[in-house]
């Protein structure tokens, strides 16, 4: 299938590692001009070099989602390096693990600014141009926890869930303009973030980390963690031209781990 991504212009947030980098790499493989973003210049430079050496087209912008000025920074970079935008992949780092009961209001407010308000503000900045051109794809990476809350990830469960109603509302309001909104929900995808969470669970429970991983694998019908490439391939379809009638969805990429229908 031709995804129609050749020549499309894509901004991928928080794309120095893990799922964000995987999506950016996959979109470049499919012919898109990708703008990676994140806080680490060294990691961004390395990622862009790797993509270019593989024949892809990529640039980067240093951008910190905790910075209130990040919207302007990203908008300027998109104008300069892409000349416009067709695809926006909203991706953020995860908040600290822990019980919701123990989360302070200060931490909650700080994480809400970064993970929710910033995503909404960035999307609002780029949406008018997408509507004017009659094409846009906005994909928000969240977590399986928005359907089945994950133990010891209270902040993530709560904050990412706030984006569910937002994304669905935006999908309903903008589908007629050719702009789709979807959310992609990872289960246990093998990333540095998942490694960190497994290590945190190991310390919290006193169990060896391999026991933590074996328990996790046993809870997944597929019997294993997913790969970044598998996840990124789903993302590439959702932002593709053929996916023009897919909007307002919560798409799972979890090996069947979520227990609900």
Q: Give me the CATH superfamily of the largest domain.
A: NAD(P)-binding Rossmann-like Domain
Helix vs. strand class: alpha/beta
Number of strands: 7
Tally of distinct domains = 2
CATH third-level topology of the largest domain: Rossmann fold
Architecture (CATH level 2) name of the largest domain: 3-Layer(aba) Sandwich
Cα-atom radius of gyration:
18 Å
Indicate the proportion of strand residues: 5-15%
Mean pLDDT value: 96
- Shape verdict: globular
The largest sheet, given as strand count, sense and whether it forms a barrel, is:
7 strands, parallel
Q: Please report the first level of CATH classification, the CATH class of the largest domain.
A: Alpha Beta
**Number of helical elements:** 8
Record the strand order, biggest sheet: 3-2-1-4-5-6-7
- Compute the separation of the termini in Å: 28 Å
Uncertain regions spanning at least 5 consecutive residues: none
Report what the structure shows:
The chain is of the alpha/beta class and 261 residues long. The protein has two domains: 9-187 and 227-252, NAD(P)-binding Rossmann-like Domain (Rossmann fold), CATH 3.40.50.720; 190-225. It has eight helices and seven strands, in the order βαβαβαβαβαβαααβ. A seven-stranded parallel β-sheet has the order 3-2-1-4-5-6-7, sandwiched between helices. Strand 4 (87-90), helix 4 (105-133) and strand 5 (136-141) form a beta-alpha-beta unit. Helix 4 (105-133) runs parallel beside helix 5 (154-174) and helix 6 (192-205) packs across helix 7. The longest helix is centred in the middle third of the chain and has 29 residues, at 105-133. It starts with 8 loop residues before the first strand and ends in an 8-residue tail after the last strand. The model has no long low-confidence stretch (mean pLDDT 96). InterPro entries: NAD(P)-bd_dom_sf, SDR, SDR_fam.
